[in-house]
Protein backbone atom coordinates (compact mmCIF):
# COMPACT_ATOMS: atom_id res chain seq x y z
CA UNK A 1 0.00 0.00 0.00
CA UNK A 2 1.11 3.52 -0.71
CA UNK A 3 -0.17 4.94 2.61
CA UNK A 4 2.30 4.29 5.44
CA UNK A 5 1.21 6.24 8.51
CA UNK A 6 -1.45 8.57 9.87
CA UNK A 7 -0.21 11.30 12.21
CA UNK A 8 -2.77 13.35 14.14
CA UNK A 9 -2.08 17.09 13.91
CA UNK A 10 -3.33 19.04 16.95
CA UNK A 11 -3.68 22.79 17.15
CA UNK A 12 -2.65 23.82 20.69
CA UNK A 13 -3.12 27.01 22.68
CA UNK A 14 0.14 26.86 24.65
CA UNK A 15 3.07 24.93 23.18
CA UNK A 16 5.07 24.94 26.43
CA UNK A 17 2.19 23.38 28.39
CA UNK A 18 1.62 20.82 25.63
CA UNK A 19 5.30 19.87 25.49
CA UNK A 20 5.38 19.41 29.28
CA UNK A 21 2.34 17.13 29.03
CA UNK A 22 3.48 15.05 26.06
CA UNK A 23 7.23 14.92 26.67
CA UNK A 24 7.64 15.22 30.44
CA UNK A 25 4.36 13.49 31.32
CA UNK A 26 3.76 10.86 28.64
CA UNK A 27 7.36 10.33 27.52
CA UNK A 28 7.10 11.40 23.87
CA UNK A 29 10.37 12.41 22.17
CA UNK A 30 10.66 15.38 19.81
CA UNK A 31 11.89 14.29 16.39
CA UNK A 32 11.29 17.50 14.39
CA UNK A 33 10.44 21.08 15.18
CA UNK A 34 9.98 24.48 13.61
CA UNK A 35 11.00 27.80 15.13
CA UNK A 36 10.03 30.71 12.86
CA UNK A 37 12.78 33.06 11.73
CA UNK A 38 13.11 35.97 9.30
CA UNK A 39 13.98 33.60 6.43
CA UNK A 40 10.65 31.80 6.80
CA UNK A 41 8.74 34.94 5.91
CA UNK A 42 6.31 34.13 8.74
CA UNK A 43 5.61 37.73 9.76
CA UNK A 44 2.53 36.74 11.78
CA UNK A 45 4.69 34.84 14.30
CA UNK A 46 6.68 36.68 16.90
CA UNK A 47 10.30 35.86 16.26
CA UNK A 48 10.99 34.93 19.87
CA UNK A 49 12.86 31.67 19.36
CA UNK A 50 9.92 29.51 20.51
CA UNK A 51 8.88 26.21 18.96
CA UNK A 52 5.64 26.71 17.01
CA UNK A 53 5.34 23.25 15.41
CA UNK A 54 6.76 19.85 16.32
CA UNK A 55 6.61 16.14 15.53
CA UNK A 56 6.61 13.91 18.62
CA UNK A 57 7.01 10.13 18.84
CA UNK A 58 6.33 7.50 21.48
CA UNK A 59 7.34 4.03 20.32
CA UNK A 60 5.96 3.72 16.79
CA UNK A 61 3.22 6.33 17.33
CA UNK A 62 3.55 9.98 16.31
CA UNK A 63 1.62 13.22 16.69
CA UNK A 64 2.19 16.77 15.47
CA UNK A 65 1.46 19.92 17.45
CA UNK A 66 1.22 23.50 16.22
CA UNK A 67 0.48 26.52 18.36
CA UNK A 68 -2.34 28.78 17.22
CA UNK A 69 -1.52 32.39 16.51
CA UNK A 70 -3.01 34.58 19.28
CA UNK A 71 -5.47 36.23 16.88
CA UNK A 72 -6.52 32.81 15.55
CA UNK A 73 -7.27 31.13 18.87
CA UNK A 74 -10.40 29.02 18.37
CA UNK A 75 -13.53 29.95 20.27
CA UNK A 76 -14.83 26.36 20.41
CA UNK A 77 -13.59 23.71 22.82
CA UNK A 78 -10.58 21.93 21.35
CA UNK A 79 -10.52 18.18 21.33
CA UNK A 80 -14.30 17.75 21.35
CA UNK A 81 -15.06 14.42 19.72
CA UNK A 82 -11.40 13.48 19.30
CA UNK A 83 -10.11 10.33 20.99
CA UNK A 84 -6.82 8.73 19.94
CA UNK A 85 -6.43 5.04 20.81
CA UNK A 86 -2.83 3.90 21.19
CA UNK A 87 -2.43 0.12 21.07
CA UNK A 88 0.29 -1.00 23.49
CA UNK A 89 1.92 -4.12 24.87
CA UNK A 90 1.29 -3.07 28.50
CA UNK A 91 -1.00 -0.10 29.09
CA UNK A 92 -0.87 -0.57 32.87
CA UNK A 93 2.93 -0.16 32.87
CA UNK A 94 2.43 3.09 30.96
CA UNK A 95 -0.20 4.12 33.50
CA UNK A 96 2.32 3.74 36.31
CA UNK A 97 4.93 5.70 34.32
CA UNK A 98 2.45 8.50 33.58
CA UNK A 99 1.41 8.76 37.23
CA UNK A 100 5.07 8.85 38.35
CA UNK A 101 5.54 11.81 35.99
CA UNK A 102 2.53 13.65 37.45
CA UNK A 103 -0.10 12.93 34.80
CA UNK A 104 -3.66 12.99 36.13
CA UNK A 105 -6.01 10.33 34.79
CA UNK A 106 -9.51 11.41 33.80
CA UNK A 107 -10.66 8.11 35.34
CA UNK A 108 -9.06 4.93 36.67
CA UNK A 109 -7.86 2.41 34.10
CA UNK A 110 -10.67 0.03 33.17
CA UNK A 111 -11.39 -2.96 30.96
CA UNK A 112 -13.42 -2.26 27.83
CA UNK A 113 -13.74 -4.49 24.76
CA UNK A 114 -11.15 -6.92 26.12
CA UNK A 115 -8.57 -4.16 26.63
CA UNK A 116 -7.10 -2.39 29.63
CA UNK A 117 -7.80 1.28 28.85
CA UNK A 118 -5.71 4.08 30.36
CA UNK A 119 -7.48 7.39 29.59
CA UNK A 120 -5.69 10.77 29.63
CA UNK A 121 -6.59 14.24 28.39
CA UNK A 122 -4.08 16.84 27.20
CA UNK A 123 -4.15 20.55 28.22
CA UNK A 124 -6.39 21.43 25.25
CA UNK A 125 -8.93 18.66 25.81
CA UNK A 126 -7.67 16.11 23.28
CA UNK A 127 -8.47 12.67 24.69
CA UNK A 128 -6.19 9.68 24.41
CA UNK A 129 -6.46 6.07 25.50
CA UNK A 130 -3.51 3.72 25.88
CA UNK A 131 -4.82 0.14 25.58
CA UNK A 132 -3.53 -3.41 25.82
CA UNK A 133 -5.25 -6.82 25.60
CA UNK A 134 -6.45 -8.53 28.80
CA UNK A 135 -8.49 -11.48 29.98
CA UNK A 136 -9.83 -9.48 32.95
CA UNK A 137 -13.64 -9.19 33.09
CA UNK A 138 -15.34 -6.34 31.22
CA UNK A 139 -15.80 -3.12 33.28
CA UNK A 140 -13.05 -4.10 35.78
CA UNK A 141 -11.45 -0.96 37.24
CA UNK A 142 -7.83 -0.90 38.37
CA UNK A 143 -7.46 -0.31 42.09
CA UNK A 144 -3.95 0.70 43.13
Structural class by sheet pairing and helices: alpha/beta
Question: What is the CA-atom radius of gyration, in angstroms?
Answer: 17 Å
Helices, by number, come to 2
Q: Note the run of SSEs as H and E.
A: EHEEEEHEEE
Low-confidence segments: none
Please give the largest β-sheet: 4 strands, mixed
Structure summary, number of beta strands: 8
Strand content: 25-35%
| C-alpha termini separation | 43 Å
Shape: elongated
Helicity level, as a percent range? 10-25%
* Neighbour order of strands in the largest sheet: 1-4-3-2
Q: What this model shows, in words?
A:
The chain has 144 residues and is an alpha/beta fold. It has two helices and eight strands, in the order βαββββαβββ. The strands form two sheets. Strands 1-4-3-2 form a four-stranded mixed β-sheet, covered by helices on one side. A four-stranded mixed β-sheet has the order 5-8-7-6, covered by helices on one side. A hairpin with a 2-residue loop joins strand 3 and strand 4 (61-67). The radius of gyration is 17 Å and the shape is elongated. The N and C termini lie far apart (43 Å). The mean pLDDT is 91.
Amino acid sequence: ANVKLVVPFFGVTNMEASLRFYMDGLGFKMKRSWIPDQADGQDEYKLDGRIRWCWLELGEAAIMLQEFLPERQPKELLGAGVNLCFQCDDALALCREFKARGIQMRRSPFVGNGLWVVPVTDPDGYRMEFSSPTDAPEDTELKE
